[in-house]
Amino acid sequence: MFLAWLVLVAVKASQFHASWSIDAPGASQTSLTVVWHTESVTEGLGVRFRPSSSEYSGYADPFRLVAGSYKNSSVEKGTMREAVLTNLRPSTEYSIQVQLSDGEWENKTYSIRTASKDNGFEFAFVADTGLEGRPDNLAIATRRVIKTIGEWNVDLVLLGGDYVYYQTDKRFGSLDNHIDKFFESIQPFASHSVIMPTYGNHEFELMENVETWKSRFSVPEGMDSGSHYAFTVGKVRFISLLAGDCHTIEPMNEAVLAWLDKELEASVNNPDYKWVIPFYHIAPFSNGHSHPSNIVLRKRLGALMEKHGIRVVLNAHDQSYERTLPLNGTSGGEWSVLSRELDCYDSETQGTIYIKTSPGGKLSNHGNSFSWFTSDDAPSYTAVRESAHHHILHVSVSDDYNEITFTVWGIPSEDYKEAHVIDEFRYTLSDNCSPARARKRTQRAGKTQQHIIEAI
């Protein structure tokens, strides 16, 4: 047994990722769920971990060992494993190593932070990534997008769906093999940031299988075995919803909507939460030609967002960036604009802002390009839109949780061009809001871009 702690061998990437699978008060502060792949079928493989702080370096053997279990999945080779780490310290980075066979540990140490109890945090939202190296070259910026998120070193990455596009990319054989490649490809951020997913139309219906995808993540039970779930980071409540059909609310049904209504009511009335942020793949507001607005989704979910005073919703799907102004009146399929402010919102602001952030590296199969807008004049709901870059959303939550800054980065398809900020705005719970920095917002010729940030 002693030798087993010492042996480290060079092996294939383990598809390591960590999540919060327990939805209970403080769970994200005191627990982590680790998932990894091993080619071994040996029972009893586990995880060893310790705080990364140098204060522990004086111990001869500072690691704790937790036994893992088989994770039910259809992976073609080897097995998926899962281990739940509990009784952890809040706001603490943990060094983690995973066991690959009897006496063999992967020769890499991962670093994952537990959530903070009293301080703010940073997170990213990315979707529509695809797998690098597609024969059609559509995943032209996927590696750069993933690398950028890895360099941010955020606490949490929200995955917004449409990850491998198996319908048009079958290089690696089975769907499971492509999922393997996905988890290997995101190691630049999955090796040190918690990841929490939702699923898109490709996972749901386009020659893929959402159950296969769900079996590879570990999330709270929620509704329909993790299709829809919620979790908390500090004083922010996140709600992940599976909106998988481009034109309906499927696979959501009345039971799911009732669950969501109850979850939203409990969350917005919980004094421990200051923000409630739903995220799902299909966009209820989209002027792009590839994937226009899902009006049915807008009506059904919009009514619930308005009922419970949700401030911000995150979406993807259509391969361009659009942010709406604060809206209500969406239950009939239309909308009412409640503010024309672009840069800062305060406690007096009414309505819901929808942020559509896409693509995350892969161009659309509709025209092999970004999704151009179908009207020169932007719809009246539009605050900002842009269709010439890949997009990633970076979000910073202040230490007192009273302010959130949303920053959208544009990643060019061309490696030689620099990434830059496309949009940024602040939302504060105070009653007085002013832009933090002077900025220049411009309207490009042809109105394919509106109010993007040219300089800060």
From TrEMBL:
Molecular function, one GO term: acid phosphatase activity
Pfam families: Metallophos (PF00149), Pur_ac_phosph_N (PF16656)
Presence of the UniProt keyword NADP in the record: no
Purple acid phosphatase N-terminal domain: residues covered: 26-114
Recorded catalytic activity of this chain's protein: a phosphate monoester + H2O = an alcohol + phosphate
Record keywords: Hydrolase, Signal
Superkingdom assignment: Eukaryota
Residues of the signal peptide: 1-21
Calcineurin-like phosphoesterase domain location: 123-318
Record EC number: 3.1.3.2
InterPro entries according to UniProt: Calcineurin-like_PHP, Ig-like_fold, Metallo-depent_PP-like, PAPs-like, PAPs_N, Purple_acid_Pase-like_N
Similarity comment: family membership: Belongs to the metallophosphoesterase superfamily. Purple acid phosphatase family.
Listed name of the protein: Purple acid phosphatase
Organism: Lotharella globosa
